[in-house]
Amino acid sequence: MLLIPCPWCGPRNQIEFTYGGDATVKRPALDAAEAAWYEYVYLRENPCGPHDELWLHSAGCRSWFKVRRDTRTHDILASARIDEDLVS
Amino acid sequence: MKYSIFSLARNALSYHENWPLAWRSPPPKNHYDAVIIGGGGHGLATAYYLAHEHGMRNIAVVEKGWLGGGNTGRNTTIVRSNYHLDANAHFYEYSLKLWERLSQQLNFNVMYSARGVLNLDHSPADVDAAMRRGNAMRLNGIDAKFLSRDEIAKWIPNLDCSESARFPIMGGLLQPRGGTVRHDAVAWGYARAASALGVDIVQQCEVTGIRIDGGAVAGVETTRGYIATPKIGIAVAGHSSHVAAMAGIKLPIESHVLQAMVSEPVKPVLDTVVTSGAVHFYVSQSDKGELVMGGDLDFYNSYAQRGNLPIVEHVVGACLALFPSFGRLKLLRTWGGIMDMTMDGSPIIGKLPVSGLYMTGGWCYGGFKATPASGWLHAYTIAQDRPHDLNAAFTLERFAGGNMLDEKGAGPYAWAH
Fold this sequence. Notes:
The structure holds 2 protein chains of 2 kinds.
Chain A lengths: L2 E4 L3 E4 L4 E5 L11 H9 L7 E7 L7 E7 L5 E6 L7
Antiparallel strand pairs in A: 1-2, 3-4, 4-5, 5-6
Chain B lengths: L4 H9 L20 E4 L3 H14 L4 E4 L15 E2 L6 H15 L1 H5 L10 E5 L2 H16 L5 E3 L1 H7 L15 E5 L3 E2 L2 H14 L3 E3 L4 E7 L2 E7 L2 E4 L3 E3 L5 H6 L7 E11 L9 E4 L4 E5 L5 E11 L7 H14 L8 E12 L5 E4 L5 E5 L5 H18 L13 H4 L16
Parallel strand pairs in B: 1-2, 1-12, 2-8, 4-14, 12-19
Antiparallel strand pairs in B: 3-7, 4-6, 5-6, 9-10, 10-11, 13-16, 13-17, 14-15, 15-16, 18-19
């Protein structure tokens, strides 16, 4: 069971959350080349180890935030507000 | 040695103590005409078909662990070809046709059991979708039959088909030729047949790097030394991103954990495979008597080969809603496997943007049933250096070109397929 530390509500059961995927991808400028959009929409680093990702506290405060989690062990290393950087 | 009633009788005379090993385990050579990375069903099938169909005998399969120790031994053994989109339907139907004669071809009993795969429908919209998919399947020459609630209730007495069911059953789409296959036997059967044709199977040999020279592959670095080869096939679903990255290639794939579980073994109670898309649940009974169950992904990136309890609770809850009488059984064990989830839910079988590098991967939930056709087409693509008509749609380039094969229409969210 994941105990996910919401930056607003504190540690809560994973069933309150919805996963939002890789937090490192950045939306390109509207006039960016097609290759940049392809990379943004489809390509992922998919690391075996620490992964920065988005979560939504859907059954709680309804806020999106960031989590750094190890994909080999599911250990949660850090969490941060959406406008903060992850520090671990 | 050919397995037969005569070899069985001969070996009975020596109390079955002198059976030869099913495959050779030679040390790796310095050079091969092709190296397949991954000794699961797909990699072993690729090697077998390269040797059998294309006459390439100087080839090796390298595996970091033991044969069939990944998803080949972790899936729920279901085979079917009940797909809607043409490219998927033709591909999985070819695979099912290979399953039907695989035991004879490999001289190894893979225990293909055509017990049928039934998808339940719980709403009028479900029924419409099932009718549409069933008609599409029949237009593609695949068997499909719609069953009414009464027909299902008569066939599967344990299933709650009453008016008061938590998820009322309004009908179901049956593929009679679908069923199950003994998954370990698939790895062993392909390994034995490939080894007999001269393929070197090298276990405990992890690939740590791919050497590229002038835009073409030169060889693989492994924990048992460098192996030079002009052709490399990657068949490591779960870890495709990680191995492709050794060649500098980024894939439209995320790795996610999918759990499965079995009950304690009981006498025969269920003689088909029952699935429900709406409830996210499927169940069949193994030949040992365990009820084999599964559901959805855990919905977060993972390489851990184990999941968490909310999914176990969901699967068991769904099981009891559909089959109340199974409530007296104990859950025996649960496990997880790592899925390559692509951005459209369909696989990638083809050439990669480095000359001499090929892959079969991105299997999402569908890898086991695809094993024979995946190996057959991967081998064809490696030997001919071009895709066959059956895998022409499964390119890596389809994502950039907008030619997605999105069976579920879920969009570019790997975990949503």
